[in-house]
Amino acid sequence: MAYKNYLPKFKHESAVLILDQGYIIHEACDAVGVGQTAIRRWVTQLQEERAGNTSQKTRALTAEHQEIQALREEIKRLKREKEMLKKASALLISETFNGSS
Q: Which residues fall in a coiled-coil region (predicted)?
């Protein structure tokens, strides 16, 4: 059986059925065509995001937490670039001093 990958918006809307629209698990599963394990996981994730917790392991369901994840990735990228620039600068300075003697 192949693993099916769902978009965050679909997961969000599926979890909202239970959290905000009064569906019970099996009704929501029937309505969106997914299994109980998946929908329970999405409900838990949405509850966590609503509580202000953003997981680094899964793609966020809400736009706010998707932005937080994107910003965290940008920070990581900028830190890597900064480290590379530090090393390149140190190498250039080293070559300048060694070459001018």
A: 61-95
Give the model confidence (pLDDT) of 31-64 as tens digits: 999 999 999 999 999 999 999 888 778 889 999 9
On whether residue 84 sits in a domain, the answer given is yes
Q: How many CB atoms lie within 10 A of CB 38?
A: 15
Report how far residue 87's alpha carbon sits from residue 55's, in angstroms, rounded to the nearest whole number.
32
Using an 8 Å Cβ cutoff, are 28 and 17 in contact?
Answer: yes
Q: Name 25's Cβ contacts closer than 8 Å, sequence gap at least 6.
A: 18, 36, 39, 40
Q: Is residue 1 part of a domain?
A: no
Q: Nearest-5° angle of CA 66, CA 7, CA 35?
A: 120
- From the list 65, 32, 35, 36, the residue with the least C-alpha distance to 48 is 65
Domain assignment present for residue 87? The answer is yes
Write down the number of H helices and E strands in the chain.
4, 0
Q: Which structural domain range is residue 84 located in?
A: 8-99
